[in-house]
Design a protein that fits this description.
The chain is mostly helical and 156 residues long. It is built from five helices and no strands. The termini are far apart.
């Protein structure tokens, strides 16, 4: 028997998942804001900028891993689609880790990170078009991607 004001279990589960995604996304953004502030407002600007780049690489790799995991959990898509999506996700992760351990110029690292976050958003959009992710997830990723890209642009 279901009470008048109660929601089905699946709907409650979806709401809980959304709360978790939104919370983790917001918490993941906080270091970007703090590191940008420290990079622009303290005397050790290069130090904080390098930490911002390192954190950006870690988040880019994490986001690519999320996409890879979503594709591995889906069994109903064609092998070429799944393969291409997984390869792109792994590529973004490898690019991020290469940047982390590469001794190139800071500006070039920031540009590659900006392009990487744009590329990750494109993959999310393709996943949305192929009904792998829901609209709310794409909206969340769009907002956070724009915010991160603006922070990295500001740091260039």
């Amino acid at each position: 028997m279901q009470y008048k004001n109660s929601k089905p279990i699946e709907e409650n589960k979806t709401i809980q998942q959304k709360i978790i995604f939104y919370t983790l996304t917001l918490l993941g953004y906080v270091p970007f804001a703090i590191l940008t502030y420290l990079h622009t407002q303290t005397q050790n600007q290069d130090y904080w900028l390098n930490i911002l780049i390192a954190y950006s690489c870690i988040i880019m790799s994490f986001t690519a891993g999320v996409q890879w995991g979503m594709m591995l959990c889906r069994r109903c898509y064609s092998i070429p689609f799944t393969f291409c999506t997984c390869v792109s996700a792994v590529s973004f992760a490898l690019i991020a880790w290469t940047l982390l351990f590469n001794d190139t110029y800071i500006r070039e690292k920031l540009i590659v990170l900006i392009l990487g976050f744009i590329g990750l958003w494109v993959v999310d959009f393709v996943l949305y078009l192929n009904t792998v992710v829901e609209k709310w997830y794409l909206q969340l990723r769009s907002v956070i991607s724009i915010a991160i890209i603006l922070i990295l642009l500001y740091s260039v």
